[in-house]
Amino acid sequence: MSDYQLERLGTREFEHVTRALALAVLGAGVRPFGDGKDGGREATFEGATSYPEPAPPEGYWDGYGVIQAKFRQRPLDVGNNATWFKAQIKAELDEWKDKTKGRRTKGKLPEYLLLSTNVFLSAVPKTGGVDTIKDYLSDELGPLGLKGWDFWDGDKICSLLDDHASIRSAYNAFITPGDVLGKMAERLGLTQDSGLESVYETYTIKSMKSEQWVRLGESGEDATTKLPLSRVAIDLPVLDPERRIDTESPAERQANGALRQIIRLGDNMLQPSEHKPALSNVVVMGGPGQGKSTLSQLLSQIYRLALIEDYPEHKLDPREQHIRRTLTHHLFEELGVPRPMNRRWPFTIKLNELGDAVSGGEDVSILRFMADKMDKHTSVPGDITPLKLRQWLGRWPWLLILDGLDEVPSQTVRDKVFETIEDFLTDARHIEADLFVVATTRPQGYAQEMSPEVYKHMQLAPLSRAEALNYVEQLSAVQYEDDDDELRSRVVEQAQEALSREATSRLMVTPLQVTIMTLLLARRISLPESKHELFHAYFSTIYEREMNKSHSHLSKLLREQRRHVEFVHQRIGLALQQKAEIVGHADALLTQAQFEDVIEQRLRGDEDYPTQEAAHIQKNLSEAALTRLVLLVPRHAGHVGFELRSIQEFLAATFFFSKGERHALEPFVATAHSTHWRHTWLLGAGRLFEEHETLRDSLIALIDDLGTQSQVARACHVGPLLALDVLDDDIAANAPKYRRRLARITLELLSAAPGSHTAQLNRALREIALADDESWQLVTEEIQLHLRTGGVGKVASLALLANWKLNKDKAGVFGRMHLDGALRDLDMETGGSLLYCTVGRPEQAQLEAWAKRSLTTGGKSDLATVVEPYLPTKSSVKAAVKKKLLTILKRIPVDQFNIGNAIIRVVNVDAGHHTLALVDHLMTADGAGSLIATALHELGPADAGVSDFLRTHLLRSVDRVRPDWPELWVDPLSEQ
User: Fold this and answer.
1) Residue 67: in which H helix or E strand, if any?
2) What pLDDT does 103 receive?
3) Which of 570, 589, 581 is nearest to 630 (CA)?
4) Which of 272, 270, 274, 273 is nearest to 282 (CA)?
5) 346, 326, 348, 328: which is closest to 338 by C-alpha?
C-alpha cells in the first residue's frame, strides 16, 4: 500500500476525496457533502449498493445512509488519533440521540453510517485503535437501530486510493509525499519520452533562481545592488468590503493579507465540478507602487517552494540550496505565510508582452506564448511545445498569473488579449484542468472585464503606519547591512517621525513610497510632502549618487551635462508613455539608435553644440546607457527604457512643463480623459499646484469643462471622476479654495448610480466635509438635495450615508440621522437597488429593517428591452446606428429581481464578448454614444444597476480614444 499525505487535503478537499471514493465503492446514489441539520456536514446515499465486501450474512447495504468525514489538521501518534476520533464520533452520536437537535429525517435516524478520517489507527488486535473504534460503534449504534456501519481510517483511504487511479491522480498535488518532482513521472504514469521533465522540473528550478530578487535599481540604490525577496518580502493588506480594515488589529490585518487569502483559495481543487467555489479566481487591484508585480513574483516563488520542498539537495547547486532555504525561512516561518496544500505549478504572463504578441497579426495562443517564453530557458531549442504544455495542464494543477492588465492601454489590443485568455480558459475547462488564475491591475480604467461572478476582486489597502515602519526596518537592515548600527537606527527613528506627521505619512502608504523614503532618510534628504516632490527627490538623489562617484568618467559627464541628461530622461518618459498606447508597443522601449537620436537632437538641434563636441557627448552617454544612465537601463538587447512604470510617468509629467507656461496646459487637455495617462496627469497636477500657482484656476476650469464638451462626456462624468482622483491624491490638500471647487465638481457623481467609484467617492466626500465648515455645508446640502429629488442620485446618497454611518465622527452622526429618516419612507424600487448595490458590504447592515429584506430571483430580460423605451424617437442619429445598437443590446442579458411589488433590473456581468462589441460601436458609430447618454438621463432607481453598466461602458468608449496631441507635442519617437 502506498503512503499518501492526507493531512495536506484540508477539511473541504478531504470531504471531496471521501465522496469520490464513496461514489466508486457505493455507487451513483451518493450525494455531495452539504450542511446537515443543526450544522452537521454530511453526504448521503440511498438505494442498493455492493458494499461491504465480502457481503455480510444480512447482505449488502440497501437503504438510506449518511457519510461523515472527520478531518484532523495535525494527526499525532496512533493512540492519540484513536482518542481524538472516538471523541469526534461521540460528539456526533450525542447529537443523534437528542431528539430535539433535529438530526433526524422525518423523526428517524439513517439506516447506515459510514465514517471516514485521515488519521491512522493501530491495527493491533483487540487493543489497537481499529478494534477499539469498531467495538465503540457496535455498543453505541446497535441500540439506535442502525442496520450497518463502518469507518475508513487513513490506511483504508490509502488502500482505496491505490485501487482507484483516477481519484488518486486528481489529488496527486495534495497527497504525493516527499520529493514531488522526483515522483511525478511515476505518479502521473509518464513515459520516459514524454519530455515533460523540462516543464515541471528544469523550468521550476531555473525560475526560482532568476526571480529571487527585487532589484533596487527599480527603487533607489546602486544598479549592482539587489534586494533578496528572502529578506524584504511582505504580505500586503487588503480592503475587504465585508470587513472594516481601519478597526482591525495588526494581527487581523496580517491574517487577511493578500498572499494568505490567495493561497487559501488556491488550496481548493478548481476542476469544473459541482463543488468548485463560485469565486474560484482572483483579480488583485492596486495603485501605482502598491506592489502588485512583486506580489505576483512572491506567489510564484511560494508555489515553486511547495514543489521543491523535498527535492534532493544533491540535485541543486549551492546557490539554489541557499535560495530555497532562505526563502522558505522568511516566507513560511518569519512571515507565517501558509504553505500551499495544493502544490500548483506556477507561471506568470506579463500582459503587456502578451498584448504585443497578439497585436502582431499572428494567431498567438496562451500555450504558444508560454512555450516560446519557456523555450528560451531550455538547452534544447523547440523542446517545449504547446502540445506538451496542454498535456501538462491536464495532468497537474496550475497557477496562472496574468500581471498588469493596466499596462495594455490600447483597447483594441486589450480586447484581443481578453479573447486569447477566454479561448485558453475554454480549452482548460474542456480538459477539466485544475486551473487557478490570479490577475493584477490598477483600478483606473478597469471595467470588471473579469467577471465578479468568477473572480474574487481584492483591492490592496494602504500600508498602516506600523506596517510602513516594519518595512523600513526590513529595508534598512538589508540596504545598509555593511554600515554601522547608528545609520540603521537613525533611518528607523526618522521614519517614525515622518510617519507621525500627516504630510509625510500619506507618502508612506505603498511599498515603493516607503522604499524611496528609506533611501531619502539614509541620505538626510529634506523629506517631501507631495507625490511629485517624492519622485523628484528620488530622481535627484539617484542622479547625485551617480554624479558624485569618485574616479568615474561618467560622473564627470553627469556633472557637466546635468541639464541635458535630465531633459533626455523627461522627453523619453513622455515618448514612451505615448508609444505604449500604440498597438504592438505596450512594453515601450527605445532602440539604442533612437536613444542616440534624442541626444543628438538635444545637443545639435536645441542647443547648437559643435558637431564634434556633440558627437563626443552622445557617444559617452550612449555607452553609459548600455549599463545604466541614472534611471535609463538596458531592458532587452539593443533597447533601453525605465524599469519602473511610475518613474516613466513622473518624467513624462515633468516634461509637460518643458515648453513654458504658455503650453503647459496642453498635455493636460489632451490626456484628461485617459486612464492610461491618469497617474502622469496627477503627478503633473501636483507639480503645477506647487510650482505654477498662476495655472491653478485654468487647471480647475479644464476639469470643470470636461463635463460640458459633449453629451457623452457629461453622461459618463469624465470631469467629476477626474476631480475625484485629484482630491484623493491630496493635490489641493493645502489649498482650501481649490479643494472646494474640486468638491463641487466631484459632487456631480452623486447623480450617478453606485458603481466602482462609490467607495472612493464616499471616503473622499467625508474627508472634504470634515475639513472645514464651508466644505461641510457644501457636501451635506448636496446629499440632502438628492434625498429630496429621488432618482438614481437618491440611491447613491443613501449608500453614502450608510457608509458614513459606520464612523464615530461628525459624519457618522449625520449619516445616522438622515439615513434612518430616509429609510422609513423609502419606495421599493429605490430600496431594492440600494440593497443590490450594498450586497456583501458592511453598509448593508446599516439599513435597519431594509437589511432584513431580500431580493428574490425573477425573470430574464435583455438590455435592448430595458433601454429602448428611453431612446429618442426622433434624432439626428442614423437609423442604422440605432438599429445596430439595439441588436448589440439585445444580446446582453439582464437579470430581474423582485422585492415587494417592484422589479429591480441589473445587467448579467457574464455578458462576455457582447460588451466588447458595445464599446466598439459606441466609439466608432457616430451618435451611438449620445443615444446611450439620453437613456442614462432617463433611467430610474429600479434600473440603477443598468445605469452603472451603461455609464461604465460609455466611459470605456471615451477612454479608448487616443489623446489628440497638438503638433508641438507629437514626438516622432512615439510613432517609430
Assistant:
1) strand 62-70
2) 63
3) 570
4) 270
5) 328
Crossing angle between the packed helical segments 718-728 and 758-769, to the nearest 10 degrees: 60
Coil, strand or helix at 674: coil
Cβ neighbours for 433, distance < 8 A, ≥ 6 positions apart: 271, 393, 394, 398
Count of beta carbons in the 10 Å neighbourhood of residue 808: 7
> Distance (Å, rounded) from C-alpha 151 to C-alpha 131?
11
DSSP for residue 625: H
Strand segments (E) across 442-564: 455-460
Tell me whether the omega of the peptide bond preceding residue 312 falls within 30 degrees of 0, making it cis.
no
In this predicted structure, what is the pLDDT of residue 223? 43
Give the model's pLDDT for residue 198: 67
Which pLDDT does position 38 carry in this prediction? 42
Buried b (16+ CB within 10 A) or exposed e, 125-149: eeebbbbbbeebbeebbeeeebbbb
Give the distance from CA 471 to its chain's centroid: 21
Name which of 380, 53, 351 is nearest 197 in CA terms: 380
- Please provide the DSSP assignment of 421-468 as one string: HHHHHHHHHHTT--EEEEEEE-STT----S-TTTEEEEEEPPPPHHHH
Give the containing element (helix H, strand E) for 955.
helix 944-959
pTM: 0.89
CA 277/CA 283 separation, integer angstroms: 15
User: DSSP readout, 268-305?
Assistant: S--SSSTTS-SS-EEEEE--TTSSHHHHHHHHHHHHHH
Beta bridge partners of 41: 35
Are the CB atoms for 9 and 118 separated by under 8 Å?
yes
* Cβ pair 812, 766 in contact under 8 A: no
Question: Rounded CA gap, 35 and 506, in Å?
Answer: 46
SS3 33: strand
CA distance 288 to 511: 10
- Ranges in the chain, pLDDT < 70: 1, 33-41, 101-107, 191-195, 198, 215-225, 241-249, 274-275, 550-552, 583-586, 909-913, 975-976
Length of the chain: 976
- Output the pLDDT for position 238: 93
Closest C-alpha among 440, 446, 398, 400 to residue 283: 440
- What is the pLDDT at residue 383? 81
Sign of CA dihedral 938, 943, 944, 950: negative
Helix (H, G, I), strand (E, B) or coil at 14: helix
Please state, in angstroms and rounded to a whole number, the distance separating the CA atoms of residues 468 and 512.
11
Amino acid, res. 694: T
What is the pairing mode between strands 112-117 and 148-152? parallel
pLDDT at 220 (0 to 100): 47
